[in-house]
Amino acid sequence: MWWLLRTVYLIYIFGSILCLFKPKPRNPEANMNVSEIISYWGYAYEEHEVVTEDGYILPIFRIPHGKNKSNNLVPKPVVYLQHGWALCASSWILNPPSGSLGFLLADAGFDVWLGNSRGNIYARKHVRLDPHSREFWAFSYDQHIKYDLPATIDFIVNKTGQKQVYYVGHSQGALIAFGAFATNPQLAQKIKMNFSLGPIATVKYMSGLIRMIVLLEPTITKLIFGEKDIFSNADAKHFVQCLCHRETIGTICNNILTLLFGHDPQNLNESRLDVYAGQAPAGASIQTTLHYSQAIRTGVFQAYDWGSSALNMLHYSQPTPPLYKVEDMKVPTAMWSGGQDCLADPLDVKNLEANISNLVYHRKISGYNHIDFLIGLNAPSKVFNEIVRFITEDQSG
């Protein structure tokens, strides 16, 4: 792996010296954080911290109203956006306002909240644990389901005074919702409607390069990546950001994204590759990676397998990990899936669809891949505007 990175780096250096790779104009937001991006586009924002029951400190960002609109006392519908695996709150504001769901929802008159799961670059604080310790990183998406989401929704409900919020989840953000709303009825009652983009629960048919990464044997995974976090190295991110923002290599980076997430390179704005590379990946735990590996092998949506009946008994009081039963989730759900999505494969989505008790809408977009739901050039017309319409009609009804 490292020899490949070194080779590409040498190509980049010599290519730059020989003027083979002309750099593109750099976007101002390329190295901004979430609050800076929001402010750059002229929106008001707030930053809050949520403390989970097990002590993790999660920053969440609020866009209380649209651009150039006063923050009046009239309560607005509250919308919470939850990012996917190895991403962060910036997932929803990577494009200019007309192409980013976070900004579009704010301009539509909603109170928008952007969440962060423990372990990403923004959420690496704990009331007592050192983020450099193995103990800090001993979590998978089970803890996002059990602790992160309930604490975040409770905070938002208490802060806004609203009894219910609208939930939007992409990828793992959808998985967290299915698990949490199925196992926590009190939490589910606080959700007005669940919008799932590129939804995953089972990942039996996941394909592409990411499948190869997560299917490594646990000992090999830990040998290569360690036992704490993954996809967090700032130096690597800056290198990729620099490399992808060259006119010649930009197309190669586009093709790499296609291999990772699916087949629709024409729907990607290559002029913003430096922004995307500056925000993603944002880090996750090795244990979450191992959890996905287990899910691919078993083909079921269940809690983390600790590797032995004895350890599972210790954690779950049963010899095997408990299942997350999506059919127990009663929250009204609308979802959008992609025909070229290799992470939320159409076969997995079909199985998921059959188990959703209260599915009110499902749009299958034939050419869509996994990241089109966040940054696709036509995402506003294909997905975002429909979410706005659902919420608007629900409010007027």
Whole-number average pLDDT? 88
Individual helix count: 16
The value of Rg in angstroms is 20 Å
The span between the termini is 55 Å
- Please report which band the strand proportion falls in: under 5%, 5-15%, 15-25%, 25-35%, 35-45% or over 45%: 5-15%
Cα shape: globular
* Biggest sheet features: 9 strands, mixed
Secondary-structure-based class equals alpha/beta
Tell me the series of helices and strands, N- to C-terminal: HHEEEHEEHEHHEHHEHHHEHHEHEHH
- What portion of residues is helical? 40-55%
Describe the protein in words.
The chain is an alpha/beta fold and 397 residues long. The chain has helices at 2-17, 34-40, 101-107, 141-160, 172-183, 185-188, 209-214, 218-225, 234-244, 247-261, 273-279, 286-298, 309-316, 346-355, 372-375, 379-396, and strands at residues 46-51, 56-63, 78-82, 111-114, 125-126, 165-170, 191-197, 229-230, 284-285, 333-338, 359-365. Strands 1, 2, 3, 4, 5, 6, 7, 10 and 11 form a nine-stranded mixed beta sheet that branches. Helix 4 (141-160) crosses helix 5 and helix 9 (234-244) packs antiparallel against helix 11. The longest helix is centred in the middle third of the chain and has 20 residues, at 141-160.
Please give a handful of descriptors for the protein shown.
single chain, alpha/beta, 9-stranded mixed β-sheet, two-stranded antiparallel ribbon, 42% helix
